[in-house]
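Records of this kind hold a single protein each, on a pair of labelled lines. Below, a sample record shows both lines together.
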Amino acid sequence: MSDDQPAREPIGEDSRIEALEQRLRAAHEREIERNRPQVKGTDASYRLGNRVLAELLGGLLGGAVIGWVIDLFAGTEPWGLLVMLFLGIVVAFRNIFRIANRPPPDPS
C-alpha cells in the first residue's frame, strides 16, 4: 500500500442529514410559536378580575373580623361588627374604583 491514496474516500455530507436538520429547525420554530401566548389581553383581564375579587372579599372579611374582635372585647354586641363591616365594604369599593380608573398598561 502506498501513502498516495487513502483507503477510503472522505464521506461527504449526506442530503438526508441536511433534510433532517431542516425539519428539526422547522419543528423547533413551530413548537416555539405554539407555546407563545396567543392572546395577551385575556391573561391581563383574568389577573385584574382576580384582584378585584380579592379586594372585595378582603374588605368584607377584614371588616367583619375586626368588628367581631371589637365586639368581643368591648361588649357592644352587634354594633362593632356592623360598623366595621360597613367600613370594610366602603374601603373595598374605594379600592375597586381606584383599580377601574387606572389607565391600562402599555401593550408594548
